[in-house]
Design a protein that fits this description.
- By secondary structure, the protein is an alpha/beta fold.
- The chain has helices spanning 3-16, 19-26, 30-44, 60-81, 99-116, 168-172, 220-228, 238-246, 277-294, and strands spanning 49-52, 55-58, 92-97, 121-126, 140-144, 153-159, 162-166, 187-191, 197-201, 206-209, 212-217, 233-237, 251-253, 257-259, 264-269.
- The strands form 4 sheets. A 5-stranded mixed beta sheet has the order 4-3-5-15-6, with helices on one face. The chain has a 5-stranded mixed beta sheet with strand order 11-8-12-7-13. It has a 3-stranded antiparallel beta sheet with strand order 10-9-14, with no helix packed on it.
- The model has no long low-confidence stretch (mean pLDDT 87).
């Protein structure tokens, strides 16, 4: 049982007042949060919340336990955030991330972290495969929209908006794209098993496009390279094409339209009782960096 994690969940449920809202923020199913709360109440042998269609409310016993829980959470935070002896971090951590996001957004944080803490060490796993955190001994995993197992702790950083992009040369060689329905006549550069683009306009309109399947790849790097080589239109994360948009290597197709189900960028950590000071410190540095680097991409 992850007691600290369950107490943090209790605190969040008291704040948000419903399983659904806490589930949206955590990226977990409300039913899984309800099961965790049931387990905590069974462990403490007390009913913490009244459950009603309108939401959750603390019982009298729950309110008292919440005061105690906050003290425990605060004490645990101080313990795990404390640097090593004499303020020096000496631990080793393993960090995983999707390849392109890892190179562009995680690697710079690792550089800062290792310079600040010369006695710490980091293993980087940049891969587009989903790793098993326990088996691969991963301390922190950066993921885009992949739902982790319920027993992992998830921190959502930002919404990951995706837009349609193409080179000016490609667009000049084909029929003009005046509306979203014109996409069906254009060459699509598709990721994985995707065969359609589910899109939403900023005013709420939705549309499903069926582009011609010119090329399919399992990595975003390949799609962007092919896009810049004038082979078609790609659906890309804004953070990934920001620089190419600025220097004109690609342009946005149909501004105002985005992927309808854009995935969040999240940090996932194993739900374990002890978090090393090194992992704790890196987690916070990475969170701050990602929020700062990506804040303009999703406005």
């Amino acid at each position: 049982m992850d007691l600290i994690g369950d107490l943090i969940l209790m605190q969040e449920l008291a704040e948000y007042g419903s399983f659904s809202k806490a589930g949206r923020i955590r990226g977990q199913a409300p039913s899984s949060l309800a099961r965790r709360l049931d387990g905590l109440e069974s462990h403490l042998k007390v009913r913490l919340f009244n459950r009603a269609p309108s939401g959750l409310s603390l019982t009298a016993s729950g309110a008292q336990k919440l005061i105690e829980a906050r003290s425990i959470i605060e004490a645990a935070g101080k313990l795990t955030s404390r640097d090593g002896e004499n303020g020096v971090l000496t631990g080793h951590i393993v960090v995983s991330a999707p390849s392109r996001l890892g190179v562009k957004l995680v690697a710079p944080v690792v550089v800062q972290f290792l310079k600040k803490h010369p006695d710490a060490s980091v293993d980087l796993h940049f891969t587009d495969s989903i790793q098993n955190l326990e088996q691969d001994k991963v301390d922190i995993s950066v993921r885009i929209g992949t739902e982790p197992p319920d027993h992992h702790y998830i921190r959502r950083i930002v919404t990951n908006k995706r837009i349609l992009v193409a080179s000016q040369t490609y667009l000049a060689s084909r029929a003009p794209i005046k509306s979203v329905t014109d996409l069906d006549e254009h060459d699509g550069l598709l990721l994985g098993r995707t065969s359609i683009w589910s899109l939403i306009h900023q005013d709420g309109q939705t549309h499903v496009a069926f582009p011609k399947q010119r090329l399919r790849a399992i990595t975003g790097d390949v799609l962007l390279s092919m896009c810049k080589a004038n082979l078609g239109i790609a659906l890309k994360s804004i953070w990934d094409v920001r620089r190419d948009l600025e220097n004109g290597k690609v342009v946005q197709v149909l501004p105002g339209w985005f992927q309808a189900h854009s995935s969040d960028i999240m940090l996932v950590t194993p739900s374990k009782k002890f978090v090393s000071p090194t992992a704790f410190a890196f987690n916070h540095m990475l969170t701050d960096y990602l929020k700062s680097a990506l804040r303009h991409d999703n406005q």
